[in-house]
Design brief:
heterodimer, A: 76 residues, mainly alpha, elongated, B: 615 residues, alpha+beta, Immunoglobulin-like, Substrate Binding Domain Of Dnak, Chain:A, Domain 2, eight-stranded mixed β-sheet, seven-stranded mixed β-sheet, 8 helices, 36% strand, transmembrane (chain A)
Chain lengths: 76, 615
């Protein structure tokens, strides 16, 4: 079998765009999480909704910050 | 000069001893042409041998011998079979395997290398062999110390006769010098100096182990850049980059500088007052190199330039000061390379294919350490290098690491540009391991959110019995109750909308059964609602803090009930009319009064809902 070149899962030139996009989504979700925390009272707050918003926001923020690191030249 | 006289004497002695030793084998060297290249600090001796088998037994190995003073400087040796007839044609095929051997009956002062032939050389047959031997630190500066204005003179010693265990029929030596200026050279019969080329020979019928010393004293102002230690770190990231960092510890290996250094003189006439110094080095980096930097311990060095095309990237660097003999400098070069050019996969294994030596031109490296940093989670690591090296493994901690990255370390002494061959590091890697890094970041953020949730849910007040605390708790309960009532009413309102929608459907399709079914489901839903509302309203009535909201809430509930009843009545009427097959105008007349009330009630209920929502 002839050797096959290995490439990155995402083309290098896409990292800056991807990082801006995912970080924007992540920050909007974070904002909605904190708005929810501030506007509901302790009795009416639903733990499930808090956790889901937090989890989805952290997935976007995690990938966003990874792409940001790579776009800046810190290849982790 | 005393030292050279001594060495000379030694070799004459050795020659005396060796000439008495027996003939080594039946091989005869019919023709030996040697070209000694002294144009740089690295001595390259290219020897083309015509080997003939004069005996009757086939022979499969040829011995090459080097005197002790050369053997310890030997950095690289390769022998290739020259099958092409034309002179311009390069020797073909890969190098033949060479190894150090210690034959019997030879003095210790000689080192032998054995070249194994792929197929034996039969009786009367002959072959052409090209041998390239590269020596470092073989040129001795003489005088050893020079001042800034002096030129650098070097001494080179070798033998005019090819030192070989075999008899040599015809041989000649050509020495290529960097400049026409030659201080002195050993004059033998038939020695010719034309321009910068010095020729000895031809010599005929020389017995084995013949040694005829020659010494050449010549000018050489080429850069003597010697890296005492070079550490190359090659870090692979599967996210698309191979990062190379090279730490150089460089010195000028030529004649030592003595006296003071005048920057003024150097600046005014650099090629006269500082001819032996060098001020720039050129590194040939692979194509598509990016993020190139050149710095030392105190920061960026700005004197460098970079240009590139599709075949290479050239980096020209200038140290902070010109380097004179014995002066040293340390700096770091770093660059990133695209992953696809160097990392490959075959048979389920990944491998890095990278050049071993330094990218800097004509650099001698005393100790080269190549570190290949593999991604975290690599297994079954093995390295394949085309020449013997010391190797071991280490672990390195870098960004977002849990257990550290495995590092393959390769160490080799005496490295010359000829060692710039590709080497491979094989390893196994599961692509899913790439996800550990983003997962760590994701969990980091998630813990932040969880911390916020815990903080918001925890009750951090110290006094649980104070009046203000109790009032706060009660008010929160009232708020929660009102919120619940609001939710229930908004459910009711959606049920109302459903009823209205079913009526619209009825007027369009005339399907009475579907309309009745909707009515039934809405009925059961609304029945449950009144049961849910009762305890909530009772709680509000009993709570003193809800006093000012209570009238509004009760009004809302009453209005909603009214609205509900009217809507039901309207619904019943319309369905009845449809069952009796009455005309559209008749139906409209019947519900007209009800319809007006419903619209106004709905408006009032919506206003009240908005008011309650703002509490």
């Amino acid at each position: 079998m002839a050797p096959k070149a290995i490439t990155s899962p995402v083309p290098d030139s896409l990292y800056p765009t991807l990082s801006i996009l995912t970080l924007a989504i992540g920050l909007v979700l974070t904002a909605s999480f904190f708005i929810y925390e501030a506007t509901t009272s302790r009795k009416t707050r639903s733990l499930a909704q808090e956790l889901t918003t937090g989890a989805v926001a952290s997935v976007f923020l995690g990938f966003g910050s990874l792409f940001l690191l790579i776009a800046c030249g810190v290849y982790v | 000069m005393l030292r050279f006289a001594l060495t000379l004497l030694l070799f004459t002695l050795a020659f005396g001893v060796l000439s008495s030793s027996p003939v080594f084998s039946d091989l005869i060297l019919a023709k030996v042409d040697r070209r000694i290249d002294l144009t740089s600090q690295i001595v390259r001796i290219t020897t083309s041998l015509k080997v003939e088998n004069a005996g009757s037994n086939p022979i499969s190995e040829i011995l090459l011998s080097f005197p002790e003073n050369q053997a310890k400087h030997l950095a690289y040796l390769t022998a290739t079979l020259n099958e092409g007839k034309g002179k311009g044609k390069a020797s073909s095929g890969a190098g033949l395997p060479t190894e150090v051997v210690i034959p019997k009956d030879v003095p210790d002062s000689l080192t032998f290398y054995s070249v194994s032939l792929h197929k034996g050389l039969g009786k009367g047959e002959s072959l052409l062999l090209d041998v390239l031997a590269v020596f470092t630190h073989a040129l001795e500066p003489f005088p050893e110390k020079i001042s800034q204005a002096d030129i650098q003179l070097l001494l080179f010693q070798d033998t005019a006769h090819f030192l070989s265990p075999y008899k040599v029929m015809v041989q000649s030596v050509a020495v290529k010098l960097p400049e026409a200026r030659v201080e002195s050279y050993t004059k033998l019969e038939g020695t010719k100096l034309s321009g910068s080329e010095l020729k000895y020979g031809p010599f005929h019928n020389i017995p084995p182990f013949s040694y005829l010393p020659i010494i050449i004293h010549f000018e050489n102002n080429q850069p003597f850049a010697v890296a005492e230690e070079l550490v190359r770190e090659i870090e692979i990231s599967h996210w698309g980059n191979v990062q190379v960092t090279e730490h150089y510890n460089l010195f000028h290996g030529g004649a030592k500088s003595k006296g003071e250094f005048s920057r003024l003189d150097y600046q005014a006439r650099p090629y006269v007052r500082g001819a032996s110094a060098f001020r720039r080095l050129v590194a040939r980096l692979p194509p598509r190199a990016h993020s190139v930097y050149y710095r030392d311990e105190i920061g960026n060095i700005s004197t460098s330039s970079l240009w590139g095309d599709s075949k290479k990237t050239e980096l020209e660097i200038e140290p902070r000061y010109p380097l004179f003999g014995g002066w040293r400098t340390a700096f770091t070069i770093g660059y990133g390379l695209p992953l696809r050019d160097f990392l490959f996969e075959s048979d389920g294994k990944r491998f890095l294919n990278f050049s071993f030596g330094s990218p800097i031109n004509e650099l001698v490296i005393d100790t080269l350490i190549v570190k290949v940093v593999l991604p975290e989670g690599s297994k079954d690591i093995s390295a394949s290098v085309p020449f013997p090296v010391k190797q071991w493994q280490e672990t390195k901690f870098s960004h977002l690491d849990l257990v550290g990255r495995p590092v393959v370390v390769l160490e080799k002494n005496n490295v010359v540009p000829e060692h710039n061959e590709h080497f491979q590091v094989y390893y196994k890697f599961n692509s899913l391991s790439m996800l550990t890094e983003p997962l760590m970041l994701i969990f980091g953020f998630f813990f932040l959110f969880v911390a916020c949730i815990v903080y918001m849910h925890a009750d951090l007040s110290i006094s649980k019995s104070s009046a203000s605390y109790l009032a706060k708790v009660q008010w929160e309960e009232v708020q929660a109750t009102v919120q619940q009532i609001h939710n229930i009413i908004s459910h009711c309102l959606t049920a109302h909308d459903k009823l209205e929608a079913s009526l619209r459907d009825l007027s369009r399709t005339g399907d009475v059964q579907a309309c009745k079914a909707t009515r039934k489901s809405v009925d059961s839903l609304l029945k449950g609602v009144s049961k849910d509302l009762k305890p909530l309203v009772t709680f509000l009535q009993s709570s003193p803090q809800a006093a000012h909201i209570l009238p509004k809430v009760e009004e809302l509930i009453a209005k909603e009930r009214d609205l509900q009843e009217r809507l039901m009545a309207k619904h019943t009427t319309v369905v009845d009319c449809y069952e009796k097959k009455l005309g559209g105008r008749e139906i409209e007349n019947r519900i007209a009064s009800n319809q007006q009330k419903i619209t106004s009630l709905r408006q009032e209920v919506d206003d009240l809902m908005e008011f309650i929502d703002e509490i």
